[in-house]
């Protein structure tokens, strides 16, 4: 039992190494510094979203509205600057929107007791719709020159590494610090492990749930700004893409159990690398978008299946030692 | 046909290497009522779960009608004619009686009228006074049980297992239930009957089997038993020398009044409950199932949500309080140690040290924005030593410990919060004998230190051995108070029942 649980993250890492070596050997053009940097750059945004999702999943929830948190607040910032508002005002508005969105999500889940799956499914749709109807003129909001002071978070390279990758690294450090070294991080693990025990022990469970979704929304908005800076615009239709499945894939494949309380940032990073390798190889192989979805769907199903085997929650384990 | 209808040979079932039952031989004759008794954790439930196909044997044999067979699911067991009536009802609350009876047996076209008529005839043939069109959630405990029994008979059960069937019944309902069991016997059905109430076992059964620590102790005709012999077989020694110790001869004096509860109400479990708790004493709280003990103290400690709080006054150290969440109670020095440690006690993926540290963090709140690894380790280690938790290291996961050691961790998690009022709900449930003595010593130590200790227990010897003061609950309120010097098992039980 113990051994399997410890090595789950190692298994995924080995899988990553095997795939990586395999692709390097057999896939022309894969193992080139150019391609590898592209690979990393492509998954940096996904990785940051994966961090947000990790926080929520460790606390026994799920946030399907992350892609809306990615596109709408950042899109709002770009749009306001385009309209001639000052950059600080635009940033404040985007931040406020993300904050409010996280609070609403958290309140619905913690205090109105709506399951997180349905809450975030609906609220994400609402936020994306709100953006389309009220904020954005056209589907792709362009990056204005006035924002160029902010472009460092997503554009160019630092010591040869693309900035989005560096941002992913910084976000990873911050989230790892939060989860592993702060009291609130410890609370989130406790809540994910056993919400009843956490509550009885004096952990403020409901405010903590709100905190999770606020953090997720803020990290999502940050990812949105990084994305906008790196591609010079915000394609707000990204909400209609399959990005959210990739985010779930990162988390589950990395070994953060969907039953909560398990895993950490390292799992997210390993999961991100694995997905990045997979996506990159499929692109080089020139698989069609639909075929890629087929593969991703299959991998996700297998990963969820493996998760429920490795982290079982059936009656027998629940009664271990209970006579 | 002669020979036992159901037999277990050298039955062993281990959970994570720890045997819950160990080499048990058990035989059930046709048409007999067989009582199964033993302390908490003696293996009664596990034994019957094996028969009912809920869990599978680790080793050993099971024979039904002399044929070796091992049901792997409750459905397979049902096909073999073994049905179990669980402590918790396994009926679908929103369906009618008739729908529940025929659940899983519906014809392809499920005509409601048809099953109502069939159910009506069937219930009448059993002489059960239940309407087939009644919704199950609206029925009382006894009628629900009737439906369960009827369903078992309908499925042609040859063996019906009852797990604590009378726990939630009123005395009249109990009498009715016994008539039902006797009726089943007349029909040739064999009944296994798990009970903590020895009088019931003596009254109704033909044979009694006593289990202790997962092992078979004795099986004999009921006529050859009396209460003393059963108790002796259950605990394995004379009661006066058990871990529960002798009757108290001195009691601790009352300290200041820590908690005062006035007219606390919480429908339907707590009705105008009033009592006080004093520092420097162990207050034992006794009551039968349904007396509202746990609910009362869960309201006091904020564990039960405020929605259920219907009124009354709680005064803690002279200050009226109304805790909406346990976090507020913890900060005010009130800790509740749960009776169900798996559901609301510990964090199974975390180490011992981390579990204890979580309790510490919850109490410290904003004073500890960051976790200090060294502090976590030292707190964990000192509590492991303090409570004598037996584990290879402080980093062992709690789920891998024995019941007694798990309980110590749960207790440590609360004690690290330095509560002034600490409520133990069934502190020794599912705990091995050695750990019981240690937990009792700990309770005494806490009271000697001047803390207010509340011990809710359903086990009279435990109440008598530890309490300085005994509160007896019945139907949602404290009805009687005894000093430990005047309390006897008979007096307490009399107050709890009548």
TrEMBL record, chain A:
PANTHER family: ABC TRANSPORTER PERMEASE PROTEIN YPHD-RELATED, ABC TRANSPORTER PERMEASE PROTEIN YPHD-RELATED-RELATED. GO terms for cellular component: plasma membrane. The keyword Transcription regulation does not apply. Its main location: membrane. Keywords: Cell inner membrane, Cell membrane, Membrane, Transmembrane, Transmembrane helix, Transport. The chain crosses the membrane at residues 12-31, 37-57, 89-110, 117-138, 158-179, 208-232, 238-258, 265-285. It comes from Chelatococcus reniformis. Pfam families: BPD_transp_2 (PF02653). This is ABC transporter permease. GO terms for molecular function: transmembrane transporter activity. It is a multi-pass membrane protein. It is found in: Cell membrane.
From TrEMBL, chain B:
Keywords: ATP-binding, Nucleotide-binding, Repeat, Sugar transport, Transport. One of its GO terms (molecular function) is ATP binding. Pfam families: ABC_tran. Residues 6-238, 253-497 form the ABC transporter domain. InterPro entries: AAA+_ATPase (IPR003593), ABC_carbohydrate_import_ATPase (IPR050107), ABC_transporter-like_ATP-bd (IPR003439), ABC_transporter-like_CS (IPR017871), P-loop_NTPase (IPR027417). CDD domains: ABC_Carb_Monos_I, ABC_Carb_Monos_II. Belongs to the ABC transporter superfamily. This is ABC transporter ATP-binding protein. It comes from Chelatococcus reniformis.
